[in-house]
Design brief:
The protein is an all-alpha fold and 109 residues long. The protein contains six helices and no strands.
Length: 109
């Protein structure tokens, strides 16, 4: 029961709906006595989501990297050879490259 109380209190900022939101804050005694509906599925969902996305303060901030594909690379230079790329090309960069090429050729309107 105590774990439910602590979970309910920790999610108070995240989950506020129904009568509890309009009546104001509930006391720990009301929660412990069971007079307050506790949405256990919402609590579990928020905990699972928190584990899945991780702690945002521990994530490294993305720095902009130099593009792998040079600005003067042509379609033939990049895709006509049967050789492997020297390093992996991010999908977003490859999409940008192809869209630029298709715009130049009038294939993407």
């Amino acid at each position: 029961m105590e774990s439910n109380v602590s979970r309910a209190l920790s999610l108070e900022a995240h989950v506020s709906s129904g009568p509890a939101a309009t009546e104001g804050k509930r006391t720990v005694e009301e929660i412990a006595n069971g007079s307050l509906f506790i949405n256990k599925a919402a609590i579990d969902w928020h905990e699972s989501r928190k584990q899945w996305i991780g702690d945002s303060s521990k994530r490294a901030h993305k720095t902009t990297k130099e593009p792998i594909i040079s600005w003067n690379t042509t379609y033939d230079d990049l895709l006509s050879t049967g050789q492997l790329f020297a390093q992996p090309i991010p999908l977003s960069e490859m999409v940008d490259f192809l869209v630029d090429i298709w715009h130049e050729d009038g294939l993407y309107e």
